[in-house]
Amino acid sequence: MLRSSRPGRVRRTLVSAAAVAVAVVSLGVDAGDAPARPLIQDTANDCRQLRAVFYTATDWLRLATKLAAAEAPCVEYYISIPPLAADKTQFRYAQPAQIHALGPNFHVLAEISTHGWGNWVAADGSRDWYQAGQEARRRMAAANFDVTNGDSWIVNEFSSAVVRGIGVARANMHQLVHGLYDGDGGPPVKGGVFTMLMLGLVTSSFPTYKAYLQDWYRDTPFWNDMAAYVSDWSQELYGDVRTYAVEGSSLLERREALDDYLQHELRLANAGPDEVGAARAFLRSAYSPLANAAWQYGSGFGWTAVPYEQMEDYVSAQTYALRSFAARSGQALDRFGFAWAPKSPDGMSSSDFAAQSGAIADRLAASIRDSAQSADLTDPGIGACVPAGENIWCTTTVAGSVFNPAWKTFTSWSPDALALLGAPAATAGQPVPLTAELQVAGIAWPHATPVTVTLASGSGSGELAPTVDGPRTQTLDLSLPAGSTDATFYYRDTSAGTAMLSVSAPGRVGATLSVTVGAAAADGVTATTSIVVAAPDRLLQTISFAALAARTYGDPDFAVDATASSGLPVTLSANGNCTASGVTIHLTGAGSCTVTATQPGDSNYSAAPAVMQTFAVAQATKPKQPSKCIVPKVVGKRLATAKRMIMHRHCRSGSTRYARSRKTKTGIVIAQSRRPGRVLPRNTKVALTIGRGTGR
After folding, report:
1. Is the pTM of this model over 0.70?
2. Which of 689, 583, 695, 594 is nearest to 639 (CA)?
3. Domain total for the chain?
4. Is 655 within a domain?
């Protein structure tokens, strides 16, 4: 339930156009790209509306408090709260009130655990998923979730089985969100869905992942159901800092790379044909990318194993990209959010972890606030990178980082296609087996209904047959059953030469195959041609070798799996920053590695075409050395800003006292205990004196 922003006084701060231009140039953008007008901060008329959804595994109240400290009046904040760990169908009674106390723009989302409610359904044969949704609404009301005041529910999570359409997974989730929407006597309420990104599949095969999405988008009844019951489609997009922080790249290149990833689902739907209209309409209204503020992780939440200052930078850049895309796409309401799940690195003290993770939360809150205040600029959202009076963000680099261009393929739709596979050579008079295959994005892909393909030969002496024994014709219709990907047929030509075969089907991109036909032996004399023809009794083989995930120099040796269709052993060789020993790959440095798989054949099989897979090898992040405390000048700053500046300089805030001041407004630092510029041991305390305003 989205309500209008509350009224109230706001400040107006102007930063000169020249200052913004200097800041933008420092980010790697030409001066001509800098805005021609002043950057206007914190004005009610210059604040882009945002519906922000936050996933929290822990620490939700601290995050919400940080967001409230830097609240933007045009942002509605939705904080998910996980259920009890012991029983994932029970909600946390006291938590909603604590979030509500932060202000009318703060709402609570009850996390609906599919694991927990799946157990609830299975425990009683008379229960179903619709009833689970209704029961969850009853328990939400009992736990003080107030749907009449903006609170709602969010499902965690739609699994890969839903994405892939396995079994009754989609039907079950339709029942669940329907029950959650209807409730049990309360008002109908749309809610949200966290959707799993099939990260393992993505890293191994982008075309396969894309084909699954395209197939999913065709399920019109499913998307119509989602439009009826779901308001926020929160795609889990836990990114990798190493695909953003590329040395020497410009701000716009970084923004484009982030857009390619964060918006790939919506972009693919926008590029689809009319038959995916229901999916496209829903995603345009509900798509809410869930970006990454989870730190420090090597897996699980993407890769964010960087010092906290670099994570602050990454959070800022994601906010900028999300804001900018929404504005450039003409959206009236921005929709995005972040995952928040801080994890203490090994060896870090609890106080350091609290300070550093708190700094990331502060930067997240500030970047959302500052990005809202730039609707008047030619570069919306830039405030997340160039806030007034603070550091310039969106500039960090991580050694070995590279952009991933594969995400650009989601800006176009891969049409259904056909392929002809098999030996490109035959012997005159001898039938040769060939295969007609259904494909999407260059990979074999089944269709939900039977597909009839038509085969034809361009040779007057060529014949096609469904079996090795016939019947033979110049054209042949083959029916591929629902769920199948291919069918075998036979081609025979009585004349030497080159024959062109074709395959076609309505609504699909056709294909051709050139077959070289060699002359047969006659009267003890073998005719010769200038074309080398494979022996008719030696079969073909292929190598299956999946794409290899990016690695980091220093990772342990790992095995790769490459197999030949013949079952013969495959030989691996490696070039670049790696070596191969048997099936084991050893990394020798940062850069890239190319692994080549070969199989030379034997008396029964010809040599297989070699298959190469290349992957990036990132430079290992060096442990951050302890920094000195370099005392900043904080006199004249507000207390919250002063504390943040002190922490960024590796100092600590000491005692705080208040004093009357005739010259300084209330809440402004009027004195500090350490002289600015002094270099002191890390975590040295800086005591502050804060003005109370004029005394009487």
Report:
1. yes
2. 689
3. 4
4. yes
